[in-house]
Inverse folding.
């Protein structure tokens, strides 16, 4: 069962990635450009980590066509994306929304950076203070005494 | 018979690795010289045994021995010889054997070339190295044995995944593994040093070349993989932030941080604890990568047979080694006394900033990679984390790194003057911003991405050159140029690597910001114009390859009536694996790639055809190559060649100086 699943998944993935087909392209270049921006951010829901823009799976093609339909019908980008989220869930978004628990994800970078810089500066201060106290390690001090007494 | 010998050699090597773990570690603990010395021949023999085992498996692949299960599943009698050989590591079991082979090679190198190490340190390094080998060989023998036979040998095999039948990908895994596994040396040295309780400049001088070598291999390996994706997947993407790519990228970021902090240990005997921690984390993330690739907990486009049972085993290996090392670190790191003190403005601080940025960037990648799993388990929220997140969350760190790098690289050790360092780079900064602004005005209505890349790239490349120039003294131009050529190779290595990074950053932003695309149904013989080039599909023919059937298109590209390139994009079908692939045709040039991919024949006649013009795409891999070359230059620096001789001379049985 697992084997078959892996096989199917790898087949889905391995189809040559000629994603966007010529017959899908909208005649209005501005609308088409918007469609591409949206589909680049939507996940092909049956693939492994591919956007519908890059995927050759049937469902990806359907999603691309749906997005274009919504745009032609006059949706804004956000409305078209929301339309997809309503149908496929949050899973379809390649860029997770910065709400709720996802704030941990988005905040990780800045928080870790501040933390790391804080630790680095604190360590530098501590080292400086320690150095001001003696300037020499105990071994070195012992050796210095030895030399001076000779 | 040969296959059974290989199997037997592997089991012997497993037994030996346990011995090699116990004997030298205990010997070093008790101070028994003969027990410690036993590690050297064992490490050599270990390598020979695993090489025999690897040779036997390769033999089975080359001779298409279809009584071996692994060969049946991953090979085919018609496959070209190169891919029969690369098929050995194009699968889970065989790639593990390659992993272990490289691990034992590094161990053997530490035995052969480590004669000048303190005996107890060398014994401990070899012992720790062998324990990693033992864990992975147990994993192989008990869950992923490459030598299993089948009861009924079929007439032919299932073939290797056609996407992997490609020269770029044939060499991608060995380079990656040389990198991943090379980091095990830094890990072994770190653990050995923690057991010894001593880290000094000599330790830093030993760890740095190993890390540098691992880093070079990892850089080339990642570059090859990215290039492969670019030409093979059919639309010119080069980085997907796929979990498996991230798995190779995180150790690379840590290795980069480590080889910078090891300089501080070597030259200034400070940042010791941090360097040890980085050594542990670098290899830890290599193991984590192995877990991500092979366990299947995270869905990825990379097809490695995945199996939860194996995942648990790898997770145990990870927990034992990384957990163990970190525990040891917690108890022992306080004993690592720092010697050199440094001011807040100093090269040391600049390198700490480099380390902070690289380490946090790596942790951001890690968070993003694991978040879907965490979110689902902890918050019941099923979601994806894809390229847009990483682009937004990771890029700022690289921009910050690029901005501070040229200044940080010229601040003096111990105590520097920020104003003076900035002033010395003033001209370069003005030039970089001017070029960026020029790029912005020349491009009309496109994002600021590419101009920012132009500015950062110029800043890094010229900054690296300015650094070399400033080191060349104060005489006339001729004398300065002459002195520049005589600078230590490490200085050249530093300049090359930093310039290579600049070129890569520039190329990435140019490709992302300036690429143009055309998707259409091309009728045979009909021309169209894209981005100034006249493109014509002159015909499509059927071509029989050794183990595939291809539809080969013939495309001519002209500019101003002059022929620029004749391209032959293909669509191939591999019947044995039942899988089609696209083979894009690319006309490479330094300033632009013309990239053509053939699609399906259309109902109304004609073929789907995608044409891209990708400015400066070749510079991307050129930059990566220059970075790696910088590593090679640094590795060949006099102090690594001479250091060995110097210490040998200091030893009692002194040999004459070289």
């Amino acid at each position: 069962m697992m084997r078959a699943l892996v096989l199917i998944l790898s087949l889905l993935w391995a189809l040559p990635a000629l994603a966007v087909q010529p017959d899908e392209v909208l005649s209005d270049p501005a609308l088409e450009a918007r469609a591409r921006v949206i589909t680049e951010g939507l996940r092909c829901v049956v693939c492994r980590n591919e956007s519908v823009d890059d995927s050759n799976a049937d469902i990806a093609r359907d999603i691309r066509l749906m997005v274009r339909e919504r745009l032609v019908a006059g949706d804004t980008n956000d409305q078209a994306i929301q339309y997809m989220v309503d149908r496929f869930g949050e899973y379809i978004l390649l860029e997770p929304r910065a709400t709720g628990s996802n704030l941990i994800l988005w905040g990780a970078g800045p928080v870790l950076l501040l933390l790391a810089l804080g630790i680095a500066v604190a360590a530098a201060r501590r080292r400086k203070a320690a150095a001001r106290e003696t300037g020499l390690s105990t071994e070195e001090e012992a050796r210095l005494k030895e030399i001076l007494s000779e | 018979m040969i296959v059974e010998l290989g199997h037997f050699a592997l089991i012997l090597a497993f037994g030996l690795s346990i011995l090699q773990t116990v004997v030298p570690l205990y010997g070093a603990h008790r101070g028994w010289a003969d027990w410690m010395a036993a590690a050297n021949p064992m490490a050599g023999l270990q390598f020979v045994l695993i090489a025999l085992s690897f040779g036997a498996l390769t033999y089975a692949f080359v001779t298409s021995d279809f009584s071996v299960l692994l060969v049946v599943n991953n090979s085919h009698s018609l496959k070209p010889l190169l891919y029969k050989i690369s098929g050995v590591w194009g699968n889970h079991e065989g790639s593990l054997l390659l992993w272990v082979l490289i691990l034992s090679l590094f161990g053997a190198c530490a035995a052969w070339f480590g004669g000048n190490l303190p005996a107890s340190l060398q014994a401990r390094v070899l012992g720790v190295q062998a324990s990693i080998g033992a864990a992975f060989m147990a994993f192989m023998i008990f869950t992923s044995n490459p030598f299993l036979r089948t009861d009924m040998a079929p007439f032919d095999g299932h073939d290797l995944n056609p996407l992997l039948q490609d020269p770029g990908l044939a060499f991608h895994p060995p380079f990656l593994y040389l990198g991943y596994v090379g980091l095990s040396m830094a890990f072994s040295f770190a653990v050995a040093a923690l057991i010894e309780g001593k880290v000094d400049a000599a330790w830093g001088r030993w760890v740095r070349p190993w890390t540098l070598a691992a880093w070079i291999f990892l850089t080339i390996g990642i570059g090859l993989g990215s290039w492969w994706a670019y030409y093979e997947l059919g639309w010119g993407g080069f980085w997907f932030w796929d979990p498996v790519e991230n798995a190779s990228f995180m150790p690379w970021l840590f290795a980069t941080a480590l080889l910078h902090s090891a300089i501080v240990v070597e030259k200034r005997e400070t940042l010791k604890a941090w360097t040890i921690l980085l050594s542990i984390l670098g290899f830890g993330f290599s193991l984590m990568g192995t877990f991500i690739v092979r366990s299947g907990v995270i869905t990825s486009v990379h097809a490695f047979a995945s199996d939860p049972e194996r995942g648990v085993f790898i997770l145990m290996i990870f927990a034992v080694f990384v957990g163990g090392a970190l525990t040891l670190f917690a108890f022992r790191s306080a004993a690592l006394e720092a010697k050199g003190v440094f001011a807040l403005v100093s090269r040391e601080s600049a390198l700490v900033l480099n380390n902070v940025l690289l380490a946090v960037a790596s942790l951001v990648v890690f968070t993003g990679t694991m978040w879907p799993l965490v979110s689902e388990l902890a918050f019941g929220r099923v979601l994806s984390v894809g390229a847009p997140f990483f682009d937004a969350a990771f890029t700022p760190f690289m921009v910050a790194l690029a901005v501070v790098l040229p200044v940080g690289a010229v601040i003096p050790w111990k105590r520097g003057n920020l104003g003076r360092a900035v002033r010395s780079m003033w001209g370069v900064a003005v030039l970089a911003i001017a070029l960026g602004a020029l790029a912005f005005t020349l491009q009309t209505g496109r994002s600021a991405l590419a101009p920012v890349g132009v500015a950062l790239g110029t800043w890094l490349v010229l900054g690296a050159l300015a650094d070399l120039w400033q080191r060349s003294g104060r005489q006339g131009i001729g004398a300065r140029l002459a002195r520049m050529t005589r600078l230590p190779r490490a200085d050249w290595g530093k300049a090359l690597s930093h310039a290579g990074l600049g070129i890569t950053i520039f190329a990435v932003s140019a490709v992302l910001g300036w690429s143009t695309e055309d998707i259409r149904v091309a009728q045979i013989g009909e021309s169209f114009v894209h981005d100034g080039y006249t493109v014509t599909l002159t015909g499509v023919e059927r071509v029989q390859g050794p183990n595939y059937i291809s539809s080969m298109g013939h495309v001519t590209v002209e500019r101003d009536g002059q022929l620029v390139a004749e391209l032959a994009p293909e669509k191939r079908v591999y019947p044995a694996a039942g899988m089609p692939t696209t083979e894009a045709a690319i006309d490479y040039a330094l300033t632009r790639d013309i990239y053509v991919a053939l699609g399906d024949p259309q109902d109304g006649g004609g073929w789907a055809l995608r044409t891209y013009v990708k400015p400066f795409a070749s510079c991307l891999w050129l930059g990566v190559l220059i970075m790696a070359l910088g590593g090679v230059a640094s590795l060949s620096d006099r102090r690594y060649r001479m250091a060995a001789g110097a210490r040998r001379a200091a030893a009692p049985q002194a040999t004459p100086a070289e």
Chain A touches chain B through 52 residues (CB under 8 Å). DSSP finds six helices and no strands in chain A. The mean pLDDT of chain A is 79. Chain A has two domains: 2-92, 102-149.
